Amino acid sequence: MRKLGLWSGLLFLGLFSVGQTAVVLAADNDLLRPPVSAPNPFSPNADGMNDTTTIIYQLARAADLNIYIYDINGNVVWRRFISSGQEGARAGLNRVIWDGQASWRGEGVLPNGVYICRILADAGAGKKSLGRAKILILK
Hints:
Layout: E1 5-13, E2 16-25, E3 36-38, E4 53-59, E5 64-70, E6 76-82, E7 92-98, E8 113-122, E9 128-137
Antiparallel strand pairs: 1-2, 3-4, 4-7, 5-6, 5-8, 8-9
């Protein structure tokens, strides 16, 4: 029996963690497979280490995407729209980088905390899908 969902783990070389990987198992007819972010947590503090996180998701077909990041109070702090067929909205594996900064209001880098990434995919003809992931900023 196949367990659908997100499976992730760390890759170790000796005693040191050298990477993080994620595997997503979903039903074959899903438009959007559950997104993951790596590294998670990340630390956007300009020290050159883990200053950004990459939101990784898979689309069964090209689709218009709205990517939202919410703070713990439900406020949208970052938003990005990607048109179907553009980089980040093509069939297959896609990646979008987030630097931990708010999209507007001149807030700069957001404070430590849990943020919710929500991706809405619309392939037209009534085919829509929603994916969610938690992202932690820890500076």
